[in-house]
């Protein structure tokens, strides 16, 4: 029994530790965000409403059916609902009605409402998918921001480790009288500045982790972290395509463009519905009525009065009415005409919005394309600068070790290397993100391989 309890404790402990140390990949973050984002949940509920509206539109084609049952009693002067005669006695009456109405023609408005409801459900799906696209991009941006901050922090710690070694050597040189004490103070100041960099770097990592956790609706910030894999520049053939070809493909599948196109179709259906009010409406109706009275009734066959039971009266005193109704609009204070004009304006506004959205997408693709080229050029320049700074630092270090350079100039050489390394990290992840965005507009899913 003791062995079983120990084993269970170890399993639970390992499970808890593994849960606390889970490292999220980009794919896991994207999938979790799409499944748990509150805005997505809200849009999904809106989509369900749109599907219910589609069911309502279908119901307009069907006849309605309603039934009423009325029971009443009276004393004193009363009126028999069957004969219409007045009398002074107690009476109990029961009445029933079954009615149905159906619209046969109303200017095709029911058909257009049905088509509009279907289009609205499709538009709702495009709206939901477009939101998911935006969330995927935001998750990727924040994920890469954490990676960038983590790499920068590693560089800060590595730089501080080198400075500690220089500090140790400088102390020995000062004690042996080779270099003045002022050089030691300069190295100590450099070390203090790098410690501050480490503190700031750790804070940036924490802030970026919290930002991504909030985007994923995760409140356990302390135990949330992403995989520590370092990503290099990924290979990509996207730049072999022109901005025009990338835009042409994006227009064909982007959900925001499909949403705008759906809005144009919705506006056109609204116009058709408004125009339908100019036509007559033809409806049919059917009514069935029956009643019962506790008062004696006159039997025309036997020429006597007697009290029929409930079922007999409901059968004898029932009646049916049916017919049709034609409503012709003649004048309604310009409301139909103005409704049509408003709908026509709505169509034009939707078309203008579609063109604006296409123009905005084309502008974004062109800017992203240019940014990919410029960010890669910046990355290459930063790498060359870093290589040159490192060579200059190595030369400065050799001179400093033999006393041919003071500590201030040596610390400046170190600072230039620090800045160059930070710039390489910044431009690398800036290029990766812009490249992934451009691929995303070309229909390539966001992945970090």
TrEMBL record:
Organism: Maribacter algarum
InterPro entries given in the database record: OMP_efflux, TolC-like
GO MF, any single term: efflux transmembrane transporter activity
Signal peptide coordinates: 1-19
Family the entry assigns: Belongs to the outer membrane factor (OMF) (TC 1.B.17) family.
Keywords: Cell outer membrane, Membrane, Signal, Transmembrane, Transmembrane beta strand, Transport
PANTHER family recorded: OUTER MEMBRANE PROTEIN TOLC (PTHR30026:SF20)
Pfam families, A to Z: OEP
Signal found in the keyword field: yes
Localization, UniProt: Cell outer membrane
Protein name in the entry: TolC family protein
Location, primary (coarse class): membrane
Lineage: Bacteria, Pseudomonadati, Bacteroidota, Flavobacteriia, Flavobacteriales
GO cellular component: cell outer membrane; efflux pump complex
């Amino acid at each position: 029994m003791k062995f079983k309890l120990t084993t269970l404790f170890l399993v639970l402990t390992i499970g808890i530790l593994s849960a606390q140390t889970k490292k999220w990949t980009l794919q896991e973050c994207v999938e979790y965000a799409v499944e748990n984002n509150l805005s997505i949940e809200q849009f999904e509920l809106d989509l369900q409403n749109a599907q219910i509206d589609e069911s309502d539109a279908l119901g307009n084609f069907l006849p309605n059916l309603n039934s009423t049952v009325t029971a009443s009693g009276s004393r004193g002067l009363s009126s028999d609902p069957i004969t219409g005669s007045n009398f002074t006695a107690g009476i109990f009456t029961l009445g029933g009605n079954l009615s149905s109405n159906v619209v046969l023609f109303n200017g095709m408005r029911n058909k257009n409402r049905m088509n509009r409801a279907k289009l609205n459900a499709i538009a709702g799906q495009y709206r939901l998918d477009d939101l998911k696209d935006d969330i995927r991009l935001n998750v990727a941006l924040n994920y890469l921001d954490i990676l960038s901050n983590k790499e920068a922090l590693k560089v800060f710690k590595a730089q501080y480790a080198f400075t500690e070694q220089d500090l140790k050597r400088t102390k020995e040189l000062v004690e042996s009288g080779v270099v003045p004490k002022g050089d030691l103070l300069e190295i100590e100041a450099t070390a203090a500045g790098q410690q501050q960099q480490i503190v700031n770097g750790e804070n940036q990592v924490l802030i970026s982790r919290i930002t991504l956790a909030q985007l994923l609706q995760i409140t356990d910030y302390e135990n949330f972290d992403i995989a520590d894999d370092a990503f290099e520049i990924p290979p990509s053939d996207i730049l072999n395509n022109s901005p025009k070809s990338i835009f042409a493909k994006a227009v064909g599948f982007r959900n925001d463009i499909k949403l705008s196109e759906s809005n144009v179709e919705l506006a056109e259906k609204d116009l058709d519905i408004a125009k339908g009010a100019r036509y007559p409406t033809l409806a049919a109706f059917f009514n069935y009525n029956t009643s019962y009275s506790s008062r004696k009734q006159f039997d025309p066959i036997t020429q006597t009065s007697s009290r029929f039971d409930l079922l007999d009266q409901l059968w004898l005193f029932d009646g049916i009415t049916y017919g049709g109704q034609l409503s012709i609009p003649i004048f309604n204070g310009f409301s139909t005409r103005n409704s049509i004009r408003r709908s026509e304006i709505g169509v034009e506004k939707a078309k203008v919005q579609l063109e604006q959205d296409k123009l905005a997408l084309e502008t974004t693709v062109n800017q992203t394309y240019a940014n990919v080229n410029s960010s890669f050029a910046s990355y290459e320049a930063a790498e060359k600068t870093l290589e040159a700074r490192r060579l200059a630092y190595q030369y400065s270090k050799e001179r400093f070790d033999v006393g041919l350079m003071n500590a201030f100039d040596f610390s400046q050489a170190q600072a230039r290397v620090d800045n160059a390394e930070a710039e390489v990290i910044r431009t690398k992840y800036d290029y990766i993100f812009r490249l992934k965005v451009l691929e995303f507009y070309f229909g390539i899913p966001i992945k970090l391989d």
